[in-house]
User: Fold these one by one.
Assistant:
Number 1:
Amino acid sequence: MVSNVSPTPITVAHGDGIGPEIMSAVLRILDAAEAAIAPEVIHIGEQVYLSGNTSGIDASAWDSLRRTRVFLKAPITTPQGGGYKSLNVTIRKTLGLYANVRPCVAYSPFIKTKHPAMDVVIVRENEEDLYAGIEHRQTTDVVQCLKLITRPGSERIIRYAFEYARMHGRKKVSCFSKDNIMKETDGLFHRLFDEIARDYPEIATDHWIIDIGCARLADTPEMFDVIVTSNLYGDIISDVAAQISGSVGLGSSVNMGAQCTMFEAIHGSAPTIAGQDIANPSGLLLAAVMMLVHIGQLDVAARIHNAWLATLESGLHTADMFVAGESQQQLGTQAFADAVIKHLGMQPQTLKPVSYTARDAIQTLPYERPEVRKELVGVDVFIDSPNPDANALAEALLAQTRAPFKLKMITNRGVKVWPDGFPETFCTDHWRCRFVGLENQALRHQDIVALLGRFSEAGLDFIKTEHLYTFDGVRGYSLGQGE
Ligand code: NAD
């Protein structure tokens, strides 16, 4: 066994709601299996939020995380009401936990599922996309959220998914995006997926538009192996996948960074069942198993995992897994942990036993920013105007427009309303007015400043600008509908 291995320091948070009871069950199993860990307990979540710290985590907790670099976290409760930042998003971004990996496996026939052959791993980008949290109210009618997809962030997660597939003997990596609509952001993600796939010729690939991909995942998950996707899509599809694999109480996830790694169940703090000793500790236990693999305690990880599988096979189930007539006995959280402890040393008979081999950590490649020629070719000026008449706005803008610009079009919610708009189109108070350079004339920042200066003098309420660039001659912005 591992008793002569010096214990690895890990940071542990007992969390809120069902967190403390499932964490206590998991730590008892780890202890019984002689995992060589030295837990440092930190306090995060509801109490820290309610003490006035809007991020839910204080400085001493960060110190522990930066010291141990391994975090076993129970779910926490985000208090209702505004002003509280998501602790998970804060931890992921602060510690650079760029890859969220969620295995979603069916345990048929012992756990009821419509998809007995399901075995999907979802690799979700964890730091960018709409989770950048850059939101603004710009007019009376309109709020916006910036979707940021970056080349380094996308390259890193896509390469991680392929490396993961190669390392775990997986056969296929599927990319989910919505690049038929978001040609710049999701288009970049899809293009990079196709480029990086060429470095892994032994792995099959395909691409799915997120909506039909999600429908197929919910209907026929056996057709997927590893799925890589951006942050919001990954958030949604991984909950769908966990739910249809059997129970939300079984799902675990690892949040992987170059320096730190966080392990947790996928479910939340389930406050309505807290304190009743009925929660399923399995999601957190499987996260702890992944943690043991991560810190190199492979035998202990396999011993616990196999004992857990054998427990499921014996029909000893918590309430969420229990099916009358099929399960043997319904157990509470702590009794289920006791059952897993009793099964330590046993192997499952029907489910495939698990063994872990030492693997190198997946390395990230240094990012090489490509050399590109960037040219300013125009500007979108966003105007706040409650007058629904696009022609009147065009007239006011044209009166202030001088060389080197010409007004090319006005859109409202992305639909062209000038020139040649339709009277049927509903217009808000948020207008995008596209100005481009006259033929062959190079544009400079001063030109934009001068244009905005004239708008200001004329009382036009500009609320933001987006510059239009080409990169090596390729347009770096979307065309307006009808342009
Ligand atoms: P939830 O996952 O807590 O609960 C959803 C449903 O699943 C509930 O019916 C619950 O009883 C059940 N459930 C969840 N875990 C279970 C388990 N281990 N065993 C048996 N049943 C289980 O989601 P929610 O209700 O949307 O959120 C509750 C709180 O959790 C919120 O404050 C939310 O912010 C927080 N949350 C935290 C995390 C995290 O810390 N990683 C993740 C999601 C939600």
Number 2:
Amino acid sequence: MIYDKYMQKCFRLAEKGRGFVSPNPLVGCIVLDKDNNIISKGYHHKYGENHAEREALLKLKNGEENGGTLIVNLEPCSHFGKTPPCVDLIIERKLKRVIIAMQDVNPIVAGNGIKKLKNAGIEVVEHVLEKEAKSLNEVFIKNMVNKTVFIAVKTAVTLDGKISTSNGSSMWITSSKARDKGKLLRKYYDAVLTTSSTVLADNPKFDCKTKILIDRTLKCDFSMQYFKTGNIFVVTSKSDYPKCPKNVTFVYCPEKSGKLDLLYLFEKLYRMNIMSVFVEAGGTLNGELLKLGLIDKIYMFQAPKILGDNNGKSAFEGNSINDINKSFNFEIESIENLSPDILLTLKK
Ligand code: AOF
Ligand code: ZN
């Protein structure tokens, strides 16, 4: 209990690394001296750089941490990776107590860090705000445990779940505040995935580092603004590739019953070190991902508008379920008021 507020600070520190540490976890650390004053803070800034504990401890030069407490949201590592084990440094710096939110799910650490600390006579308090810590590192956990990509779907709907009208006008369902939030969320994921239907209908830019375009039959024209920015992977079942701009790489994906084999695609993306994708596409792809059970998270922006029976598309097409007991179910994680709209965040 007494460590909750420090752990919350660790979460906030860890958050600063979001968008930069993948495939590593988000980690923040606080060091208290023996009288429980905060004497140092650290976080994992960027993949390949110092771990949170190392950053926090290396800032201390006069031994004030001797007999103190280290608080961190992930079990300190025990392996030689890009840097030496954090547990060795904690032991060397003579901390008395280590407070941890969750065990590391990386099999090379998984409990070994805790064991090593205890063997060195350090008191270890585990499971402090564990649920929150697991939610913070949901991508890392999915990657390590399932060896697959974390998939988040973003959609913007009306009160009746429509993403467009029958004439296809869909760009401005939500207001600019909601759209700005959507752009921010994009940066939290390794890549933004969309389809040729969306690019051809909306001509979006999708400003971000890595973009994945599902374009089975290579329908898109490289002069479109979508192709002007980012590193772009174009996924197709064709094997003869046309001339393309320098920022475009083709990714082959076989077909299954006339559609791209999405399971094959996500396995391939994982092997390409793309650990998480933010899907911004239409109801067809969303519906297929849903059917395959691939959606880990949904960001549902909802505008207080009603279109009624307009033959427009809904956010998740193609799963006509008539029995309410057979619905796909998600759990509400948060509801944010982005007046005039809301953002409903859901998890599997
Ligand atoms: C920590 N604190 O801040 C991080 C940890 O590639 P490396 O060498 O950086 O090692 C990555 C692994 O180390 C990662 O999979 C996870 O198990 C742990 N990450 N551990 O104690 C940190 N980022
Ligand atoms: Zn470490």
